[in-house]
Design a protein that fits this description.
Mean pLDDT of chain A: 96
Oligomer: heterodimer
Shape of chain A: globular
Number of helices of chain A: 0
Number of strands of chain B: 11
Number of strands of chain A: 11
Largest interface: A-B, 25 and 20 residues
Largest sheet of chain A: 6 strands, mixed
Order of helices and strands of chain A: EEEEEEEEEEE
Distance between the termini of chain A: 40 Å
Radius of gyration of chain A: 13 Å
Strand content of chain A: over 45%
Distance between the termini of chain B: 33 Å
Low-confidence stretches of chain B: none
């Protein structure tokens, strides 16, 4: 079956760095998405990786290793507003999005 | 308005009621989606419309009935729901469906929180 694994919850300190991991087992692979969802709000697009390597966008970076079926989202210089759920989703060979259950990130002062 | 707008934001209904959820997008997108989001579970795709035509029905019970009158509007008609249908229903749109020509970013609405008593 198809599966996406990510931690249920993580806690980090304001100003620090946190890495949210995502492993995927899908039928084929056409890229991996990360979305951010604040409580009571719409999920918003953060990144899309289809090639191996690290892509940086300001304080956020996303990494992909296709051979390992592994991705992570790296958040630097954490701010209180980064408290949210982070959703990982893999695009399979049929171009269907397979979603993880999300990682709730709690930022403490 | 811009983006994807969903109404109502909150809905409480009894099992015998009939209600509808509405979604509107002002992005010029051609694909629209209904997702169900339950606590601590992955997003569940329910329906996909591409250029107003339904292209996906993910074995959704018939008590959920979608309607897409045009590329900007999407409805989810609800009838004789069960308590386990209580969840956040998210609408999303994208330029086109995900295909070999390229992955498309989804733009989501803030959702309609449904409680079935």
């Amino acid at each position: 079956g198809q599966n996406i694994d990510q931690p249920t919850e993580m806690t980090a300190t304001e100003g620090a760095i946190v890495q949210i991991n995502c492993t995927y087992q899908t039928s084929g692979f056409n890229g991996l998405f990360w979305y951010q969802q604040h409580a009571g709000e719409a999920p918003t697009f953060l990144s899309y990786n289809v090639l191996d390597g690290l892509e940086e966008k300001g304080r956020f970076s996303s990494f992909l290793s296709r051979s390992k079926g592994y991705s992570y989202l790296l958040l630097k210089e954490l701010q209180m507003k980064d408290s949210a759920s982070y959703l990982c989703a893999s695009l399979d060979s049929n171009y269907q999005l397979i979603w993880g259950a999300g990682t709730k990130l709690i930022i403490k002062p | 308005e811009t983006g994807v707008t969903q109404t109502p934001r909150h809905l409480v209904m009894g099992m015998t009621n009939k209600k509808s959820l509405k979604c509107e997008q002002h992005l010029g997108h051609n694909a629209m989606y209904w997702y169900k989001q339950s606590a601590k579970k992955p997003l569940e795709l329910m329906f996909v419309y591409n250029f107003k035509e339904q292209t996906e029905n993910n074995s959704v019970p018939s008590r959920f009935s979608p309607e897409c009158p045009n590329s900007s509007h999407l409805f989810l008609h609800l009838h004789t729901l069960q308590p386990e249908d209580s969840a956040l229903y998210l609408c999303a749109s994208s330029q086109a469906e995900q295909t070999s020509s390229g992955a498309n970013v989804l733009t989501f609405g803030a959702g309609s929180r449904l409680t079935v008593l």
